Amino acid sequence: MRNEDFAAIFNEHKTAVYQFAWRMSNSRTTAEDVTQDVFLALLRGDIEADDARGSVRSLLLGTARNLIWKRWRHERRWNPLAEDAFIASPLPFHDEDREEAVSMAMGSLPPLQREALILATYHELSLQEVAEALGVETGTVKARLHRGRENLKRMLSPLSPTVGRSGAKSGTQE
């Protein structure tokens, strides 16, 4: 790979790779290490961009994902669990903590749901691009997104007012 090509790819995608790694790991140090390792792999030729196999962004985010999972396995932080069995409970929040609540709720999701939501929501990848980055079928991505969104809705339910059938907020007098 030519230095100019590498520099252009690095400048265009470094922030996306770092943000994905940070949101998945909740650690700046891990995010920096993973981002560095992704671009070193590209520079060394360990991974290669191929338009026929998907976008460069999907390749880089998929590589970041694999490195994060490798770290989790090495650190024994990840316990396999039946993702379908995970049903979130509401978390205790106050209105002033809304941004922190969303961040905490995202961090509480099972990793498979979290990574699909991060790629689709924060990185605005299409379903196909998310599937390419994760190495799964599009239907799997749809299922993970659905379950992740439902779990987020449950966890964040204390932040939204309950609306009754009449359209009035519960607990208010009409």
Instruction: Give the biggest sheet.
Output: none
Q: Which class do the helix and strand fractions yield?
A: mainly alpha
Structure summary, number of beta strands:
0
**Average residue pLDDT:** 82
Radius of gyration, in angstroms, nearest whole number: 19 Å
Q: Nutshell version of this structure?
A:
This protein is 63% helix and 0% strand. The chain is built from seven helices and no strands.
Please explain how this structure is put together:
By secondary structure, the chain is mainly α. The chain has 2 domains: 1-79, Rna Polymerase Sigma Factor, Chain: A (Orthogonal Bundle), CATH 1.10.1740; 88-160, Winged helix-like DNA-binding domain superfamily/Winged helix DNA-binding domain (Arc Repressor Mutant, subunit A), CATH 1.10.10. 63% of the residues lie in helices and 0% in strands. It has 7 helices and no strands. Helix 2 (28-44) packs across helix 3 and helix 6 (127-134) crosses helix 7 (138-155). The longest helix has 23 residues, at 3-25. The chain is globular and about 55 Å long.
List strands and helices in order, with pairings.
Blueprint lengths: L2 H23 L2 H17 L11 H20 L22 H11 L2 H12 L4 H8 L3 H18 L19
Helix pairs in contact: 1-2, 1-3, 2-3, 3-6, 5-7, 6-7
Protein traits:
174 residues, mainly alpha, Rna Polymerase Sigma Factor, Chain: A, Arc Repressor Mutant, subunit A, 2 domains, 7 helices, disordered C terminus
